[in-house]
Amino acid sequence: MPDNPFQTLPARRGRAARLHAGQAIEIVNTHGQQVVDTWCFSAEDHSEFMSMEHTRPTIGTIFPTKGHKLYTNRRRPILIFEEDTSPGVHDTVIAACDLDRYRQLGCKSYHDNCTDNLHAGLSQIGLRAPEVPSPLNLWMNIPVAADGRTAWGEPLSKPGDRVVLRAVLDCIVAMSACPQDILPINGAALQPTEAHFRVID
User: Fold this and answer.
1) Residue 5 lies in a domain
2) Start-to-end C-alpha separation, the chain
């Protein structure tokens, strides 16, 4: 059977895909500096989801890399970080952006955001998130100093870098091409771009 074709994750928008246990999702940073907020929900019970709070103490680091399992809020592995061609800088600390965050940053009107993108991506496949967990922020660079201070770094990823996340359970993966254009989360140009993804066996 030929590989599934890549689908576009449009700039500033959200998408979602269903995975059976054993399948994987390949996510490509097409232009090299786009952060992709990523969530995963159990297909059997959407109140069980990939949890950064539960993953960090289980793997012993705030920086998941190739080979790590990613755990749910019920402390079960749900995805395996199977491949990563980037320098491996991803974030598990920062919450998904939302309207309140953009108001803090001075926006007076609506701003696209990852929280709304999660809901929109799931609704396209007929699903609804019971809550908005903290995402795995693929390619997001949040340097942490020795004193615990954090900073907003530019992504270290290159055009075409990709990750592969393998499903341990039947699940739904949701993604948002982060719309952040005020801080350099998506690079110094402050220009969110599209990414691409496909489900693979």
Assistant:
1) no
2) 10
Backbone angles phi, psi at 163, to 5 degrees: -125, 155
The model's pLDDT over 25-70, given as tens digits with 9 standing for 90+, comes to 999 999 999 999 999 999 999 999 999 999 999 999 999 999 999 9
**Residue 91 maps to a domain:** yes
Count: domains in the chain: 1
The C-alpha atoms of residue 104 and residue 106 are separated, in whole angstroms, by 5
Q: State pTM to two decimals.
A: 0.95
SS3 string of 4-58? CCCEEECCCCEEEEEECCCCEEEEEECCCCCCEEEEEEECCCCCCEECHHHHHHH
Q: Burial of 96 by CB count in 10 Å (0-12 exposed, 13-18 middle, 19+ buried)?
A: buried
Contact call for residues 45 and 66 (beta carbons, < 8 A): no
Q: Which domain holds residue 55?
A: 39-167+176-191
In a domain, 17, yes or no: no
